[in-house]
UniProtKB/TrEMBL annotation:
The lineage of its organism: Bacteria, Pseudomonadati, Pseudomonadota, Gammaproteobacteria, Pseudomonadales. Keywords: Acyltransferase, Cytoplasm, Iron, Metal-binding, Transferase, tRNA processing. This is tRNA N6-adenosine threonylcarbamoyltransferase. SUPFAM superfamilies: Actin-like ATPase domain. NCBIfam families: gcp_kae1 (TIGR00329), T6A_TsaD_YgjD (TIGR03723). It comes from Stutzerimonas azotifigens. The keyword Transmembrane does not apply. It comes from the Bacteria.
Length: 341
């Protein structure tokens, strides 16, 4: 089965072709980062308009790259939520229009299920069951995964998502959007131990997270340094490192707890923040103690992309799922509501 996947939930237009026999044939991405950077974050209306401009040329591009034609496509999968409604509607309308024109089924995919399954596109995919840490710009969740659509939420952030904390903290320190990669870049030059930040909610039981206090702690530290006349690049790097270490250690402590609680030895990390090298290293060291293994996608498939939507859609379509011609998207959509495959 050849599936065209479309991703438009936020500020990336992602398109891919996934073949159930041959694997991923082609994928293309247009990132709107430059468009939104001057505003310090994503402007929803600009995002929607840009998806409209990029979608059809990207679809033509992946068909050409894969050496396929429209008549070869067996189904169209698109991100139906959660995300920005206007942006989601562009992908949903385009997918439904193509499906109608081509006489093939369409299927709306859950964006976080797409992220969760992205490591399945790698050479050594994880086997069910496993614990998944989903860390993106909008979500921080620990999930027990027994199969596709068989998700048990173990814990989540009570305020900011991990990626959101990176982005907001970066903004407070005058760094450009998106802040995650910027903080990671500065942290590489940071001196460890000069600043030590709290590890929120690790001193009490449970698997929930809270990152908004850490953001305020970082701002206060940065302001105190500036008031003392130190706004040097080195200080920014040292603060970035202290912040990143606090996030990584907090996530690692909770992942260890989730693995202990479930008795599982495989951990999947997915979503934009899973591209963070320090997080990958921290989790690999911890999993080493457990004689367990951590799985993640190549960096390009950690952040938003069409390949994960084509893959997740294909698995559900193969199981016989599809939907009618109505165009429906959801800004909020708990993953536990998904049907098992
Ligand atoms: O999954 P994603 O592309 O979009 C959402 O579904 O939200 O995640 C984007 C988030 C942003 O907050 C971005 O700052 C963060 O992932 N991010 C990173 C890194 N690369 C992207 N955070 C930390 N370190 C990185 N290397
Ligand atoms: Zn995402």
């Amino acid at each position: 089965m050849l599936v065209l996947g479309l991703e438009t939930s936020c500020d990336e237009t992602g398109v891919a072709l996934y073949d159930s026999e041959r694997g991923l044939l082609a994928d293309a991405l247009f990132s709107q980062i430059d468009l939104h950077r001057v505003f310090g974050g994503v402007v929803p209306e600009l995002a929607s308009r840009d998806h409209v401009k990029r979608m059809l040329p990207l679809i033509r591009q992946v068909l050409d790259e894969a050496g396929r034609q429209a008549v070869d496509v067996d189904a169209v999968a698109y991100t139906a939520g959660p995300g920005l409604v206007g942006a989601l509607l562009v992908g949903a309308s385009c997918a439904q229009a193509l499906a109608l024109a081509w006489g093939v089924p369409a299927l709306g995919v859950h964006h976080m299920e797409g992220h969760l399954l992205a490591p399945m596109l790698e050479e050594q995919p994880p086997a069910f069951p496993f614990v998944a840490l989903l860390v993106s710009g909008g979500h921080t969740q620990l999930v027990r995964v027994d199969g596709i659509g068989r998700y048990e939420l173990l814990g989540e952030s009570v305020d900011d998502a991990a990626g959101e904390a990176f982005d907001k903290t970066a903004k407070l320190m005058g760094l450009p959007y998106p802040g995650g990669p910027e903080i990671a870049r500065l942290a590489e030059q940071g001196v460890a131990g000069r600043f030590v930040f709290p590890r929120p909610m690790t001193d009490r039981p449970g698997l929930d997270f809270s990152f908004s206090g850490l953001k305020t702690f970082t701002l206060n530290t940065w302001q105190q340094c500036r008031e003392a006349g130190d706004d040097s690049e080195q200080t920014r790097c040292d603060i970035a490192l202290a912040f990143q270490q606090a996030v990584v250690e907090t996530l690692t402590i909770k992942c260890r707890r989730a693995l202990k609680q479930t008795g599982l030895k495989s951990l999947v990390i997915a979503g934009g923040v899973s591209a963070n090298r320090s997080l990958r290293q921290g989790l690999e060291t911890m999993l080493g103690e457990f004689k367990g293994k951590v799985f993640y996608a190549r960096p390009r498939f950690c952040t938003d992309n069409g390949a994960m939507i084509a893959y997740a859609g294909c698995q559900r379509l193969l199981a016989g799922q599809h939907e009618g011609p109505e165009i429906q998207v959801q800004a909020r959509w708990p993953m536990e509501q998904l049907q098992p495959v």
